[in-house]
C-alpha cells in the first residue's frame, strides 16, 4: 500500500510546469496548431460531404478519421492551453475521468478505423472488379460503426475501474492530460487488474488492427509488384501512401508509449510522445491527404474558388 488512501476531488496536471518561462511560447505554438487541426480536418469533412466525386468508401473513412481527430484533440488541448496560462493546474475528478475515457475510446476507434481503411485499399487494389460489391454502403457503415462499438465497452470499463479505486495522497498527474499510465500511477494498492485490462486493450484494439493493416499491405505490395505497367504500379502505390504515412506516425508513437517495458518508463519522454500523437499527428493527417491525394486537392481548389476571400478581384476600367 502506498501512502494513505484518500478520496480526491480534483487532480493537478503538472504539464510543462517543469519548464518555467516557456509556457507562453508553448501556448502560442499549441494554439496555432490546434486551430490548424480544427480548420484542416473541418475542410476535409466539408469537401468529402459537398463534392459527389468524394463520396467513395475511402473518403467516408477519411471523413470519420477527421471527425475523430477533432473530437479527441478538443478533449485534450483546450484544457492544456488553459493550464499553460493559469497558475491553477487543477482538473476536477469527473472531468479527468471524462477526458481519459474519451481519449481512450477515440484512440482505440482510430486504430480500428485505420484497419478498415487498409482493408478498403486492399479491396480496391487486389479486387478492383468486385470493389463496389464488397465495399457497399452497408459494409462501410458497419465498419465505421464497429470502430466505435469495439472501443466503447473495454474503455468505459477501464475508466470506471480506475476512478472507483482508492487514490493515494498525491493528486499530481505528471502529464498535460489524464492519460491512463499517469493516472493509474496514483492508485493505491494492487493495480494488476488495471494493467491486465490495459494489455488486453492493447492486443485487441491496437495490435490486432495493426496486424490486419500489415497483412493488407503485404497483399497490396504483392499485387502491385505483379503489375506490368510502371505507371500502374505508381498510381496504385500513391493511393496507399497517405494512409501508410498516417498509420506509421500514429502507431509509432502509440506503441512507444503503451508497449514500452514498465522498468523503462520515463513520464517526461512519454509526455512529449503523447504530445506528438495528440496534437501534431491530427495536424499532419489533413496535410498528408490534401497534398498527396489528387481528388482532394481538386475539391479543395473548387471550394476555395467559392469562398470570397480567395476569389481573384475583378477590376473594371472606365474611360
Explained architecture:
The longest helix has 34 residues, at 93-126. The chain has helices spanning 23-50, 57-85, 93-126, 131-134, 137-149, 152-163, 180-184, 192-225, 230-258, 267-292, 294-305, and strands at residues 10-13, 90-92, 172-173. A 3-stranded mixed beta sheet has the order 2-1-3. It is globular and about 65 Å long. The chain has one domain: Rhodopsin 7-helix transmembrane proteins (Rhopdopsin 7-helix transmembrane proteins). By secondary structure, it is mainly α. It is 71% helix and 3% strand. Helix 3 (93-126) runs antiparallel to helix 6 (152-163), helix 6 runs antiparallel to helix 8 and helix 8 packs antiparallel against helix 9. Mean pLDDT is 83; it is low at 1-6 and 312-319.
Number of helices: 11
Count of strand segments: 3
The order of strands across the largest sheet is 2-1-3
Succession of helices and strands: EHHEHHHHEHHHHH
- Taking all Cα atoms into account, the compactness measure Rg is 22 Å
CATH class: Mainly Alpha
Global outline: globular
Give a quick account of the main beta sheet: strands, pairing sense, barrel closure: 3 strands, mixed
Which regions are unreliable across 5 or more consecutive residues at pLDDT < 50? 1-6, 312-319
Query: Which structural class do you get from the secondary structure elements?
Result: mainly alpha
Write the CATH architecture name: Up-down Bundle
The N- to C-terminal Cα distance equals 90 Å
Amino acid at each position: 500500500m502506498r501512502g494513505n488512501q484518500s478520496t480526491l476531488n480534483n487532480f493537478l496536471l503538472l504539464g510543462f510546469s517543469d519548464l518555467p518561462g516557456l509556457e507562453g511560447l508553448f501556448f502560442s505554438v499549441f494554439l496555432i496548431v490546434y486551430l490548424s487541426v480544427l480548420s484542416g480536418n473541418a475542410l476535409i469533412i466539408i469537401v468529402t460531404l459537398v463534392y459527389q466525386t468524394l463520396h467513395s468508401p475511402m473518403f467516408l473513412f477519411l471523413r470519420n478519421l477527421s471527425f475523430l481527430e477533432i473530437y479527441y484533440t478538443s478533449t485534450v488541448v483546450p484544457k492544456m492551453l488553459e493550464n499553460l496560462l493559469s497558475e491553477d493546474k487543477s482538473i476536477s475528478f469527473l472531468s479527468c475521468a471524462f477526458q481519459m475515457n474519451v481519449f481512450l475510446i477515440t484512440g482505440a476507434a482510430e486504430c480500428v478505423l485505420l484497419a478498415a481503411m487498409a482493408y478498403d485499399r486492399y479491396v480496391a487494389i487486389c479486387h478492383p472488379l468486385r470493389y463496389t460489391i464488397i465495399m457497399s454502403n452497408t459494409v462501410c457503415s458497419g465498419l465505421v460503426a464497429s470502430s466505435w462499438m469495439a472501443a466503447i465497452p473495454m474503455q468505459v470499463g477501464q475508466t470506471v475501474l480506475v476512478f472507483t479505486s482508492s487514490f493515494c495522497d498525491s493528486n499530481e498527474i505528471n502529464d498535460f492530460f489524464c492519460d491512463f499510465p499517469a493516472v493509474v500511477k496514483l492508485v493505491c494498492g494492487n493495480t494488476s487488474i488495471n494493467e491486465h485490462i490495459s494489455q488486453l486493450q492493447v492486443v485487441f484494439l491496437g495490435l490486432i488492427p495493426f496486424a490486419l493493416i500489415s497483412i493488407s499491405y503485404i497483399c497490396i505490395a504483392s499485387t502491385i509488384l505483379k503489375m506490368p505497367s510502371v505507371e500502374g504500379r505508381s498510381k496504385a502505390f500513391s493511393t496507399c501512401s497517405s494512409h501508410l504515412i498516417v498509420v506509421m506516425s500514429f502507431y509509432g508513437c502509440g506503441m512507444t508509449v503503451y508497449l514500452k517495458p514498465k522498468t523503462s518508463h520515463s513520464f517526461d519522454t512519454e509526455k512529449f510522445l503523447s504530445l506528438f500523437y495528440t496534437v501534431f499527428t491530427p495536424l499532419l493527417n489533413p496535410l498528408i491527404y490534401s497534398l498527396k491525394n489528387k481528388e482532394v486537392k481538386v475539391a479543395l481548389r473548387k471550394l476555395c474558388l467559392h469562398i470570397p476571400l480567395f476569389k481573384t478581384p475583378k477590376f473594371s476600367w472606365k474611360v
